[in-house]
Amino acid sequence: MITYEQFKKIFPQTMETSDEESKCLKLQLADSFAYLDINILSSRERELLTTIFPSKPIPDIFSNLPLGYYRILYFKADSINELSEILRSLVPDIFRQEKNIYLEEYTAENLSMSEYEEIFEAIKNDFGLDFTYYIGNFSQPKDLPDIYLKESEIFGKGYENIQDFAVTLLRNPLIENNLIMANLDFRLNQDGEVKEIISALYQSKANQNQAAKSLFIHRNTLLQKIKKIERKYGIKLDATGVVIYQALLNN
């Protein structure tokens, strides 16, 4: 998505704020909102801009974030306030919240996807709460508005994480998810050890004992590395995940 500075070069009259929003076209850019006086735009320009830029509002929690990586947790629940209190007590890395979405900052202590699944199942059983969720992937702040639009669409289709969605992608490559998979592909490819471990697990058909032997490390060491990878990238290296991420790295 285009940044404010890039957009302003195309439309010099662009404003970051406006006291008369009703007279302006408000557009969500990658790093902020942009306001354009409707009177200076032709009908063709208004039509083009409203077509190109998403009409779905982007949450304010993506604004002015410190450098780092963040992932979005999406929830749909009747008792969202009760669920929020429980989540904040169990997940210390929640950075911001807006309505039914939570922004989690990447740290060395993030929960893995498997750990989240166990916690959510326990919440449902122990507190009698009924909810659905989607666990996003860690991304840089500048990508979060676009990531949000894509991930919220995936969540709306009933998936719980990118791995579940990726299974569908392998069966039907025509489904669009360029930004999310490209983001994950780039990060995985920057990490030589991750590529080596995924390859070893793939070659051993997810047999951890065989994979550890091929890597010349102890199985417990491999398990620690796998857990670290799952936390860092928000993925699951089970049998299905290994096939998906090996295919991604081979592209």
Automatic annotation (TrEMBL):
Family annotation (Gene3D superfamilies): PucR C-terminal helix-turn-helix domain
Domain PucR C-terminal helix-turn-helix, chain residue ranges per copy: 198-239
GO molecular function annotations of the record: sequence-specific DNA binding
Superkingdom per UniProt: Bacteria
Protein name, UniProt field: PucR C-terminal helix-turn-helix domain-containing protein
Organism: Floricoccus penangensis
